[in-house]
Amino acid sequence: MTIVTNCLRLCWFLIALTIVLIYVFVSYDHDAFAYGCHKGMFNAEVLGYSLNHQNEAHIAYNLIGLWFFGVYTIEAYGVFLTAFVYASSVVAAAIAYYIQCYLGEGTDTIIGASGGIYGIVGFSLVIAIIRMIDGAEQLEDNSRARPLQYFILVHFVVTLSYIINTIILLTFDIASMLLEQSQSVAHIAHLGGFGWGFLVGCLIVILDRSLFM
User: Fold this and answer.
1) Which of 7, 156, 166, 168 is the most buried (most CB within 10 A)?
2) Which architecture characterizes domain 2-212 according to CATH?
């Protein structure tokens, strides 16, 4: 029961967001809450567009990403910072897409939580890089403590998996955008959300280390 209780306590944001996303997907037309560039940069749907999805594959893909990367950032920095990075990255993704539309590219509207999730991906990349550096230092400092070495090495491998997955995601988005593939996918929104999440993540880590170390 303790494990279940801790999971519910730590992941209530992910659980609540999952329920909302599924409810909106089932209850509304997929064009509901769409962010439209013609309405101006900051319009009523600047956050709401992230609640709806095009189809089952779209929402399933986003929910997998939300949980895979969200649990990692929550474990490191808690629910509220993860929620802040998610929400602000949704807005950053919309702004990136608006700029693309302003430059004469892209379609008129977007929907989906991808921008916010990519923000969490950016945040998790910062955490993973810091943990890789710390893990390498700990392995060197504890070169004679074999059980501790094994523990650090496993943690190191798990952290590396987040970095590899992030690289794969970014490579796919950048390649698809440059090759003009998947026109129905707003790759620039993904990259805008990721960039914002990475920058905010750097700021969070810097402040955390300067204030508490």
Assistant:
1) 166
2) Up-down Bundle (1.20)
